[in-house]
């Protein structure tokens, strides 16, 4: 079992930045593909980004490409999401995920999910 706990969310003005962290416990994440999804009120869950176990391959949703950067530190058992140039439409609960299938945008490819951290971007 892998437990995932997110932190770093908050309220920020449009154009600002936030860095989300995901701390894993229970197992080493070094052999897991890690990712982030988000869900805004009244909207479907949306893929944000994913990263391979080595960090050599990443995948981003078109809506965040060029603004967000996913990274990982296997020694610290942690994953990060650096979010720059934030927009009001980025407002959502952001969840960290872990899986072993692929660096994929499909929720079904991830076995473990955190509870999420709220990000609110004011205009």
Record keyword descriptors for this entry.
123 residues; mainly beta; 7-stranded mixed sheet; 4-stranded antiparallel sheet; globular
How is this structure best described in words?
With 123 residues, the protein is an all-beta fold. Helix content is 0%, strand content 50%. The protein has strands at residues 3-7, 10-13, 18-25, 33-39, 46-51, 58-60, 68-73, 78-83, 92-99, 112-113, 117-122. The strands form two sheets. Strands 2, 4, 5, 6, 9, 10 and 11 form a seven-stranded mixed β-sheet that branches. Strands 1-3-8-7 form a four-stranded antiparallel β-sheet, with no helix packed on it.
Counted beta strands: 11
How would a crystallographer describe the biggest sheet?
7 strands, mixed
Q: Which consecutive residue ranges, at least 5 long each, have pLDDT under 50?
A: none
Please write the string of helix (H) and strand (E) elements: EEEEEEEEEEE
Strand content: over 45%
Write a brief caption for the model.
Helix content is 0%, strand content 50%. By secondary structure, it is mainly β.
List the helices and strands and how they pair.
Blueprint lengths: L2 E5 L2 E4 L4 E8 L7 E7 L6 E6 L6 E3 L7 E6 L4 E6 L8 E8 L12 E2 L3 E6 L1
Parallel strand pairs: 2-11
Antiparallel strand pairs: 1-3, 3-8, 4-5, 4-9, 5-6, 7-8, 9-10, 9-11
């Amino acid at each position: 079992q892998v437990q995932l706990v997110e932190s770093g969310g908050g309220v920020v003005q449009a154009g600002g930045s936030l860095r989300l962290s995901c701390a894993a416990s229970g197992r080493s994440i070094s052999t897991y593909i890690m990712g982030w999804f988000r869900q805004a009120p009244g909207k479907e869950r949306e893929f944000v980004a994913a990263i391979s176990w080595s960090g050599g391959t990443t995948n981003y949703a078109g809506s965040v490409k060029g603004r967000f950067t996913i990274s990982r530190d296997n020694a610290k058992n942690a994953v990060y999401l650096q979010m720059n140039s934030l927009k009001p439409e980025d407002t959502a609960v952001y969840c960290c995920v872990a899986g072993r299938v692929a660096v994929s945008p499909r929720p079904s490819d991830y076995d473990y999910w955190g509870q999420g951290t709220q990000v609110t971007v004011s205009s």
